[in-house]
Each structure stands twice: as structure tokens, then as C-alpha cells.
Amino acid sequence: MPDRSAASLTDRVYVEQVRSLYLNLAPSLVMWVAFAINFWLAYEAAKPPGLLALGVAGLTASTARIAVTVRYRDQALTAALDRTAAHRLEVLFSIPYLAFSALLGVLSLHAFLWSSPEIHMLTICVDVGYCAGVATNCSLRPRLAIPSMVIAVGPPILAAATRGDAAYLGVAIIASAFLAAGIRSIHVRYETSKTEIGRRLSSISLARRDVLTTLPNRLALQEYFDENAPLISSKRWIAVHYLDLDGFKPVNDRHGHAVGDALLQAVADRLRGAVRSGDMVARMGGDEFAVIQPGILHADEAKLLARRIAATIAQPFTLDGHRLSISTCVGTAVSSDRSPNLESLLKESDTALYETKRRRPVTGMAMSA
Predict the structure, then answer these.
(1) What is the pTM (predicted TM-score) of this model?
(2) Higher pLDDT, 161 or 207
(3) Which of 61, 89, 139, 198 would give a disulfide with 100, using CB separation of 3.0 to 4.6 Å?
(4) Which superfamily, per CATH, for 218-368?
């Protein structure tokens, strides 16, 4: 009989890995500019047949990459996703990504065959930079990252290696070494992330847990905060989210404590899947929970997580034959203080929570410097 809990954990790890594809838009924007410059200079140098059409196709694929990320980023980062929905998002992301990689590889091959050594130097820089970006941003999905790197940099490596020139042979060897190192780095990061995400999702790395939900308790939350807050870069922020469940008490009163306890356990399970690797979710007591989100670059990241939490809890629960619907309000405090106090941030987020309940939008946020 298959282990359903293990399968469920594997699915949640996969969802988290797919979410990571949509986190960072900047590399795609940089690569669009780099590709355009490389293409135009290569075209102007020799105007080889077909290169204009190839360049337009590459820019179109690069634009499609950006458009897909922008179109589905909010869904990827905030929606409650199962494996099927996550797979759809991965496919949507992968199609223009692989298409651009292939077109970059063909353009690079043409550049090495038709243009000058100066263009060759620019081309190999663009290719290696692209591979570095892939290794950084797609490493949690090696089935996408590794083919993208190989088909982008493989053609110019072959072209350089077959030119019969010692300098070009050196370029081919060095680029191949970088490619091999990048592939190795992807494998290592992928395996590490699976372990890290799995531990976080199942809370097995935390000794102090809430008995019912197995989430960390308030003491574990404090210890985690004390350990991680001082390590945050001066350029990053820390967010604390406080939430409670709307509609939990009627469920508990109508269906009994057993169903109420099962609902809290299901909520805890969804919260584990909603937060990022490195975040901490804890049960504060009753139907109240808290999330620590350290190391964010912008306050908008805190808003995204708050919206994802709300969307996750809003999905119906099916427990003991009952279809149950509840919701949540999220109050958020964001601080750039290098020595913040958890209790003060919890109070700020709790205040934001009740302000949210009074106004009734989805999320509320308090800011402190």
C-alpha cells in the first residue's frame, strides 16, 4: 500500500519548487536586453542570411517568458496549488523558456560562424551569463534548468572547439567547465532544497511543537526569531503575520470538537505548504497562528504571502464527510529594524489583524522602521 503521507509531502515539495520559478522577474528582463544587444551587433557585423528572423524570434520568445511570468506570478505565489495546478504553471513557464534557450543557442552558433572575434567574446559572455541566471533561478527544477543551459551554450562551445584555434579551444574548454559546474551546482541545490523544504513542511526539524497540529509553538517561534533576526541583511526586512480563523467556532459548535480538531490540523497542513522555505509558521493557541517571514527585499513580498495564506485557507475542507468553508484575516507587521522585538511585532500584527477585521479587506499591514 502506498504511503499517502509521503506522497502528500512529495506533492507539497513539488508545489514549492514550482513557485520558485516565478519569484524573480529581473533576470528575464536583463536577458532580453543582453540578447537584443548581442543579436543586433552580430547582425550588423555581417548580416548573415536568416539572422534577422532568428533575432526577432528570440526577442519574441524572451518577451513571452516575461509575459508568462507577469501573467501567472500572482497565481503561483498566492494561490492554493495542488500538484496538477503546479504542473500546469511549470509547463506554461517552461515552453517559452526552452524556446528562448534554443534560439539563443542557434543565434550564438551563427555569431561564431559569421561574425568577428569581438562578437564571439560578447556572445560567450551572454551565454555564460544566461547559464548563471538559469542555475540561480531554476535550480529547483533541474529538468528545466539543465536542458536550458545545454541547448543555449552547447552550440557555441561546439563552434569554438572546431575552429582549429588554440584560443577558441580554450574558450570551449572553459565554457564547458562552467557548464559542468553549473549542472553539478543545480543537482546539489535541488537535493538540498528537497530536504530543507520537506523538513519545513513536516516540521520534523522543530523540537517544540503544538500537540494537536505538530506546528511549532510560541516558544519555538521565539527561539527561531532570536536565531534568525540578527542574521538578516541590512538591506532586507522581516515580516510577522498574525491570523485567526473566521467561521471556526460555528464549525466546532455544530460538528463537535473532533471535527474542530481535524479542521485545525488541516489548516496547519495548508499553512505549511503556503509559506516559503525558511519561513516559520506556528500555532499561538486556539484558532490563532503566526508566521515569521525573514529576509524579504520589499514589503510587497509580505503582502503576497498574506494573500496566499488567505487564498489557501479559503479553499473548502472536506473532513469526516463534511464540506467545510472558513476564511481568515491576516494582520502583518513589517520592520527594517536590525534588532526587532518579536513581541512588539506580534502586537503590531495583531493590531493590524483587528483593523483588517473592522475594515474587512483580505489583509492588513503595519510598518515600522
Answers:
(1) 0.63
(2) 161
(3) 61
(4) Reverse transcriptase/Diguanylate cyclase domain (3.30.70.270)
